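Field notebook, page 310. I keep forgetting to write these up properly, so this time I am using the form the group agreed on. The chain and the ligand, zinc ion, are recorded exactly as supplied. Prediction of the bound pose follows.
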Amino acid sequence: MTTLIYDDIFLEHDTGYGHPENALRLKNTIAHLKLSEMWQRFRIEKPRKASFDEICSIHDANYVRGIEQIAQRGSGWLDADTCISEKSYEAALYAAGAPLTAIDGIMHGEITNAFCLVRPPGHHATPTRGMGFCLFNNVAIAARYIQKKYNIERVLIVDWDVHHGNGTQDAFYEDPSVLYFSMHRYPFYPGTGKQDETGEGKGKGFTINIPLSDDTDREAYIKTFKDVMGTRAKQFNPQFILISAGFDTYKHDPIGGLGLELEDFYELTKIVIGVAKACCNGRVVSCLEGGYHLTDLPKCIEQHLMALAE
Ligand SMILES: [Zn+2]
């Protein structure tokens, strides 16, 4: 059984007129999914809020309080494209709580896998700094939660957003218990994610970056993903898999784009599920990161969900 974790609170993180990371991304997705036959095939669940301590398993407490204070004041900016509105802190707590709700469902045997339809996204948020539309690193917090609450050692994070997840990389750069795999357009925002960024200290070899030029063709993209992620993931033998699911590699994405077609998100998902079935009883929790094509993002997500629900 696949679960979709969603709450209308995510619509209340207000980024202002003309911002690409806006509530219509989720509104349009829900409207599209309701009309598709998919809607009958998964259950919808509301997320719980992540606690302050859970957020602080990744983020500096002063940074977290700072976000809360800006929201209480009504509005503010963390950088040129990352803003906070009155409800942003609340929405961000629920966005971080969504994968935790999903993880509990999986670990209690109630569901097989889940997709968290959330915003704000998370993978650019570093332990001490929000940036690139991201406030709290939802997937990184989820990885720590799995380890602490369920005494699980090895977590794989697969990040196929078109941008490098610098925040996730930072959080686990010296940590061999979390394998971070990212395929992304390069050179591109945020400027990190070179192939020789592979981790430090005990974490050496547990960060895998596959930078791709903007003219990479989709067959090569899928093949590299399957070969490199598939091989390295099986060596690592994860006990749980998290996906930073960005859909801004889609060919018509207005701020990303790496030539992928709608059905490629079905393929990518199937590849990850194959690893999950081989290593960890199919345990996968996926979280929305980027994806800004307001009419096609819902179709990209539908492809992702079709593969999760099979
Ligand atoms: Zn992105």
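OBSERVATIONS:
- The first strand starts at residue 2 and ends at 5.
- Residues 161-163, 246, 248, 256, 289-290 surround zinc ion (CB under 6 Å).
FOLLOW-UP: compare against the apo run.
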